[in-house]
Amino acid sequence: MNDTSNATSRIKGVVSFLIKAVVIIGVVGILSKALASLGAIHGKELPEEYFSTGYPTILKLLDSELFMGLIFLITLSVFAYVGYLLWQLHEIALHKAKRDSSPQIQLVFALSLCGLFIDKTWWVLALIIVFTSWEHIMVRISDIIGKGVASAQVNEDKEKQ
Q1: Between these two residues, 37 and 139, which has the higher pLDDT value?
Q2: Nearest Cα to 107, choosing from 84, 134, 88?
């Protein structure tokens, strides 16, 4: 019973993979054809004497409008993905503040927006605020103040004697 259900789930997985692959290839083909119809290759015919071994095989591929549409689609996809990654990098401070439930979420959000539209210095300040351990800083400042107050009391006691 377990072997048949395992085999059935594997078959379903393979069929699902094949359907997804066909759909993705179809969408890429349709988009390539659509992008190819937006442009045309206008070049002059090169004489065969320009090439030492005759026409290169790649030349036919580069003259294909469908191939150029595919290249255009890939280029647009790469630019979109890089833009998405840059946006994720820009919002890293906000994501960390939300994950840590930081009380400075609104401040970090405002500084990130200022960094986007005004100057990147504000974005760096938002990163510093998010990645700084404010609890340790608070403890150290309290220790410094406590030592200063204790030192002042010792000095007052010495002056009274």
Answers
A1: 139
A2: 134
Q: Looking at the predicted structure, is the pLDDT value of residue 1 above 70?
A: no
- Residue 13's CB: how many other CB atoms inside 10 A? 10
Collapsing DSSP to helix, strand or coil, 54 comes out as strand
Structure-token match 């979109």, residue found = 80
For residues 146 and 154, give the distance between their C-alpha atoms in angstroms, rounded to a whole number: 12
Contact 86, 53 (CB under 8 A): no
User: 38 near 65, Cβ under 8 Å?
Assistant: no
Say what the pTM is.
0.54
Would you say how long the chain is, in residues? 161
Distances (CA, A) of 142 to 132, 139, 151: 17, 5, 14
Query: How many angstroms separate the CA atoms of 26 and 19, rounded?
Result: 10
Mean pLDDT of 6-28: 88
Task: State the amino acid at position 92 in one-letter form.
Answer: I
- Per DSSP, what are the bridge partners of residue 54? 52
Phi, psi dihedrals of residue 43, rounded to the nearest 5°: -140, 160
